Amino acid sequence: MTETYVRLLCPECKKGWESSPNDLPSHKRTFHCPNCHASRRLAEFTRTEHDLETLKTLS
Description:
Distance between the termini: 17 Å
Number of strands: 4
Order of helices and strands: EEEEH
Shape: globular
Number of domains: 1
Helix content: 10-25%
């Protein structure tokens, strides 16, 4: 089985990273950037619409 990752990008500091959907909260919950600690809904950190759909489906 292939492990799925969601690509994330902080809208403030532009740090990019990948994370497993299982390790993330719901796309509606507040999330904090591990780099600059910006706080926004997790959906705002997803890089693409595909990443958001993956997060919605698997989290």
